[in-house]
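lol forgot to send this yesterday, sorry. struct tokens for the thing we talked abt
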């Protein structure tokens, strides 16, 4: 029987310095994309892929995330008194079930590999997903669902997309054995943020991973990589040499909400998808002189 991916890790400890001052007192994962925080999209995507347990690796100043995924009794009572049932349901129907959310803290900013390692005891012995809230997708099938559907039940998998050489050094890049047109392919190794001339391909990792606990064997060593951080990419490259490892090219459009331009583009694209906002926004965009 195929092994199901039931748990997901959300590393949300990062400081979000690119969005200062907006992120001085607000976690960057709580920045709104139209009317839902970025982290909300990642959790919805995980649920759509069948994830049942949600593990947040947080840090100082991130308690707004915990409040977001909890009941707000005052607000719910107020809406109940007013009879605003639709609004009330819109606050309640996406909350993770009681006891299915866990928070652990990354006590030092030592990198993404370290953040995932902090969740090791909550993972146990089963495959798990990792979702970075900065990467948001508009896709016919949610990104993680595409991965889970293609996951063969063992080994690792990363979502990738082609990136121009000018931007490749912002990503983890895969070294790949790919026959023409395959959407799932074997990965031989990965390099974190290579110079364009050293990039093993043009396929960049876009913030979605399915991993097995074997990755902790590497992360336990706490080896520092690029920028002096414990890099998840290095652990994955090691893993690709030990276990089957796959890349999957995602069908859909990704937005990098970790930078201002990507974030603004995502807001426009997601708003244009909404019936209640589309016409007015489109009318405004047609008047903008460039
Ligand atoms: C992280 C990872 C990188 C990956 C990227 C996707 O980088 O280290 O390998 O390609 O996320 O968004 P960051 O964006 O945190 O610099």
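and heres what i got for the seq, position by position
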């Amino acid at each position: 029987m195929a092994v199901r991916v039931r748990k997901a890790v959300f590393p949300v400890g990062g400081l979000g310095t690119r969005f200062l001052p907006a992120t001085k007192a607000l976690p960057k994962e709580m920045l709104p994309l139209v009317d839902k925080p970025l982290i909300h999209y990642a959790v919805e995507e995980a649920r759509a892929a069948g994830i049942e347990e949600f593990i947040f690796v947080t840090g100082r100043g991130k308690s707004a995330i915990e409040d977001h995924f909890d009941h707000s009794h005052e607000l719910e009572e107020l809406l109940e008194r007013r009879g605003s049932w639709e609004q009330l349901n819109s606050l309640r129907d996406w909350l993770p079930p009681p006891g299915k959310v866990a928070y652990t803290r990354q006590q030092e900013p030592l990198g993404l590999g370290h953040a995932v390692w902090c969740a090791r005891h909550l993972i146990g012995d089963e495959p798990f997903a990792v979702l970075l809230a900065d990467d948001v997708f508009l896709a016919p099938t949610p990104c993680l669902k595409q991965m889970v559907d293609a996951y063969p039940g063992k080994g690792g998998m990363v979502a990738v997309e082609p990136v121009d050489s000018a931007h490749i050094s912002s990503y983890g890049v895969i070294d790949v054995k790919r026959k023409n047109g395959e959407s799932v392919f074997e990965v031989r190794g990965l390099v974190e943020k290579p110079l364009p001339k050293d990039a093993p391909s043009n396929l960049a990792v876009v913030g979605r991973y399915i991993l097995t606990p074997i990755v902790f064997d590497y992360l336990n060593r706490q080896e520092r990589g690029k920028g002096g951080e414990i890099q998840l990419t290095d652990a994955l490259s090691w893993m690709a040499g030990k276990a089957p490892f796959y890349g999957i090219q995602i069908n859909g459009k990704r937005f990098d909400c970790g930078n201002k331009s990507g974030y603004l583009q995502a807001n426009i694209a997601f708003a244009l998808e909404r019936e209640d906002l589309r016409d007015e926004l489109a009318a405004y965009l047609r008047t903008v002189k460039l």
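The chain has a mean pLDDT of 94. anyway ping me if u want another try
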